[in-house]
Structures are given as C-alpha cells and as structure tokens.
UniProtKB/TrEMBL annotation:
Gene3D superfamilies listed in its UniProt record: 3.30.450.40, Homeodomain-like
Record-given protein name: GAF domain-containing protein
MF term (GO), any: sequence-specific DNA binding
Domain DNA binding HTH: 274-311
Organism classification: Bacteria, Pseudomonadati, Pseudomonadota, Alphaproteobacteria, Acetobacterales
Organism listed in the record: Gluconacetobacter takamatsuzukensis
Length: 327
C-alpha cells in the first residue's frame, strides 16, 4: 500500500473537518478535537514525548496492583499474535506505555515509531491514534493507517480496547499495532476480538483481587463474556461493580453508595426472614450430607422443628417423622 504524503494527509484532515464530517465519523471527530481542543497541527513535525526515568517510576507506582494484572494477559496476547507483524502494549489512563512486547528483530524499528516504554500516546500529544483516542472515547477501536492524525504514524494500523478498573473507571488500554504486510489484513477483526478478550481478563482478575472477602456474582448471559461482575458483602448488599455490570444494570456511584440489595437488583429471590431461614437450613443440610438431625443441631433447632421446616420449605433430607409435635 502506498502512503499519502504528509502534506496530502494534512489537507485531507482539514478538508474533512471543514466539510463537517465529524457528525458521521468518529475519526473526523477526533481530528477536530486535535485541532480545536489540543491545538495540534497536522503539518507539524514535533518530537515524541517520552517520560523521564523518575516520571516513569511514578507512573508505575500509580498503576499499582492494576499493572501486575496486566502482565500475564499481555504476554498471552503477544503469544497468540506471534505470526503477525505486530507490537503489543499496555498504556495507563494517561496514555503512557508501561508494558510492551515486540518481535526481537523489530524492536529498534518500532522504537523509532514511538512504540517504547514511557512514550506518551495521549490524544492531546499524539493526535488521533489507537491508545489516545480509545482512552478518550472509552470504547474499542481500530485506527487504520491513514486515520492517524500525524502522517508519521501511517506506518501502522492500531487495534485497541479499553480496560476498566474495579470502580468502573478507565484503567488503561491494550493496543496492538500491525505493520508491514499485516497492516491491511482482514484478520484484524480477529485481532480485535483477542485484544478485547485480554482486556476483559484483566478486568476480571483485578476485580477479584480487589474484593477477596466479598462474594463475586457474574452476570454473564448468552453472548456476553463474563466481565459483568458484582462484589456482594455478607449482608447481600452490592459493594462494587465492574464497568460492564454498571452499564448492564444502570448503576452509578451514587446508587452504589446509597446501598442496593443484590436480590432487589437482580430479582432472583424472595427477600425477608423466610428466605434467609430457608437458605440457612439448606446450607446446613448440604454440610451435614443431608442428615436433618445433624443440620438441626448445627442451627440450634430441635429435631421436631428442623423436620417441620424441611417439609415446609420443600428441602431434601432424611426427615425423622417420629418427632414432629413440639418445638
């Protein structure tokens, strides 16, 4: 594929903005942001912005445990995409690359393109690009080679997915930059699916790690991928929710802080003392291997009472019919 000259590319950007194409194209909307909001010039030849060592250490520290949950999915993604000419990286919420994988023979080349640890790929610095634009729009994207704001970035096509933290806020992004003969392959849709899957894995791992003492409820439904999660406390009150769960159930920070019962939210079970009692008896029966008398002793109930309750709630257990008149 022959790439347009920098001057031609810049003219195309300006013409698209002048034609008010932003309403029809997310890419043109990003181009307009770059000029109107950030004051960028598509004709400019600015140098890459790379953090100093101290700035990079600070970014690593701010990412904290989130970064540790990124590494394994990042390595797995790199392995899955090994046949492609590609670079795989994770950028923090500010667009700074904190972790990356590249083919050994291509590391020097991709570094010249700005694909290096500590490089700032925020939209405000690098214009329209996979990482920066994804972080602004908080949605998976494919930025084709000629959709980048600066002509120098037309050497690659970027496939990117946002990653959300345990509070549903943007936690960074996974980006795969395809180059060479793979840049225009139709298989980039498959790449997009793998990138999104890796992002969901980070979200799930991080959410479980942040709430180890809570019960985690998955809201996965047919066609969904299981990253819609709720953390529920011992009183069955929802304590936290992933971004996918918040969108699915229309949950806001204010709603969560006010307190929501999981049963009310999911409409899955009757609430109140009868429901709680049935659940307690069922758990005791399971732990006693179905022995009703043993379950009753665990709960501090007489044999007659536990026998009546087991029959009343339709639970399975070896009921002693000789004792059901008192209690």
């Amino acid at each position: 594929m022959s790439l347009a000259s920098p001057a031609t590319h810049a003219s195309r950007i300006q013409a698209s903005i002048a034609a008010d194409a932003a309403a029809r194209s997310g890419v043109v909307a990003s181009w307009r942001r770059c000029i109107a909001r950030y004051g960028l010039d598509p004709h400019a030849h600015s140098s890459r912005h790379v953090l100093t060592e101290s700035e990079l250490r600070r970014s690593d520290e701010q990412s904290g445990p989130f970064l540790s949950h990124v590494m394994q999915p990042l390595s797995h993604l790199s392995t899955m995409l090994a046949p492609f000419c590609m670079w795989v990286g994770y950028a923090d919420p500010n667009g700074v690359i904190l972790a990356m994988r590249a083919k050994d023979g291509d590391k020097a080349q991709v570094a010249q393109w700005g694909l290096t640890r500590g490089a700032d790929w925020s939209e405000a610095i690098e214009g329209t690009n996979g990482i920066g634009t994804c972080l602004v729009e908080e949605t998976p994207l494919i930025i084709n080679s000629d959709e980048h704001f600066f002509a120098r970035d037309m050497v690659m096509t970027c496939v990117v997915a946002p990653i959300f933290d345990h509070q549903g806020r943007i936690g960074g992004a996974f980006n795969v930059s395809l180059y060479g003969p793979d840049m225009e392959r139709e298989s980039r849709r498959i790449v997009a699916s793998l990138v999104a899957s890796a992002a969901r894995q980070v979200e799930c791992d991080h959410f479980h790690a942040m709430f180890p003492a809570h019960r985690i409820i998955s809201l996965g439904t047919p066609g969904r991928s299981g990253n819609a999660l709720l953390a529920v406390d011992s009183d069955d009150v929802v304590y936290a929710a992933t971004r996918a769960a918040r969108v699915m159930l229309k949950l806001s920070d204010a709603r969560l802080q006010a307190g929501i019962c999981a049963n009310d939210l999911l409409n899955t079970a009757e609430d109140g003392l009868p429901s709680a009692e049935r659940s307690a008896i069922r758990r005791a029966l399971i732990r006693s291997g179905g022995n009703v008398s043993a379950a009753g002793r665990t709960l501090g109930l007489s044999r007659a009472t536990i026998n009546r309750r087991v029959r009343y709630y339709g639970l399975k257990g070896s009921v002693d019919s000789s004792q059901d008149s008192t209690g």
